[in-house]
Write the structure tokens for this entry.
Amino acid sequence: MSTQETTIGAGAPAQGTGPRRVAVVTGGSRGIGRESVSRLAADGHAVVVGYAGNRDLAEAAVKEVTAAGGRAVAVRADVADEEDVAALFATAESEFGGVDVVVHAAGRMYLSPVAELDLAELDAMHRTNIRGTFVIARQAARTLRAGGALITFSTSVVGLAFPAYGAYSASKGAVEALTMVLARELRGRDVTVNAVAPGPTATDLFLEGKDEETVARLAAQPPLERLGTPADIAAVVSFLASPAGHWVNGQVIRANGGIV
């Protein structure tokens, strides 16, 4: 097991009359995960920031939350390792008293035409995207309190079928299938399970390896004629994690600006 915890000034105790809700966010050091950490903390959640390797970015996310008066800790965890994930959730229990929201934003992307696919890359991507989602979902199903939410991540490319995205789309199709099944398996628990499927979003993961012409072409596809931003997607996460979004269950939300 490789888990290493970092507790950077966990912040002031929750204020007000009710207990503070607690969120676990994987992939919380970068991109959509990082933005989700900030948004959920602003919404009043104590946040456990799960990260794979970049400790400095995870610590920066925690410091941002605590500087604003929130509570957060960072925990290193391989999402495909069941012991690491158990320790990630155990930190939420020990530091903040439980888990109400799980946002599984950790992911890996490798693009290649099917005929040229490197199977080692396929295995690495599927370990993170499929096994990792199952490991997180299993722990969430065992841990989430009544009124809670599990939010997984797919991609709008599952429906758009862009060339070179075959292996990545296949891994995210598995995430969608798992999400639909788990929502039904948790009948009677008062826990929702939904997937967010972003379209082209301006993150490092998306922009890596793309020239300006490609980025401009993708940005022109939605009727809104721009790339999504991590804040756009974090707003959807915030809604699904909130009481206002609790009647949405067993759905894939294609947050893509209207691409069809």
Q: What stands out?
A: Residues 1-9, 13-18 have pLDDT under 50 and may be disordered. The longest helix spans residues 119-143.
